Amino acid sequence: MSSSAKAPSAKKPRRSRTRRAGESAYGLLLLAGRALMGFLALLLLVAGAWASWPAAQHVMFPQSREHGTMTVARCEAEHCTGPFAPVSDNATRRSKVTIERSVAADEGAEVPVVLKPGTTAVVRSGIPGLLHAWIPLGGALLLASVVVAGGMRMRRTAWGLAGVGALLLTGAFVLL
User: What pLDDT is recorded for position 7?
Assistant: First the structure.
């Protein structure tokens, strides 16, 4: 016999129907688990955006809103108050407006703000206000990264989500 002759090929035994059905069911369970974790991550991100939107819309789309500065006069546990000095043409002076304490500076500081329509509540404008408005989304990004890494086994995507969330939260902390 020559060394180039091929050995007879052995046929692989066919798996039983029960084993093939079991393997398919296991694969289906894995797919369902990943789909559920993807839905949970998406739900977290939507909830974070939903919680951020009430403040973010005033900072992101300030064209028709009243712009001005607020001089912080007095701070309580959750809110600070002070007079509103208009900067834009459509704004009117107000003797007392309120802002969240977490956004306001020390008493006596002037803070650039946008007035929420129909209220005396203001939100901080500019990049610091924008980052502060999106803080709930930053937290949701961090939570979703844990779900994506652990539940979906997509570690690179999870690191990306965590990085964006951490940058957003760090930027808000540094600029405020």
Answer: 61
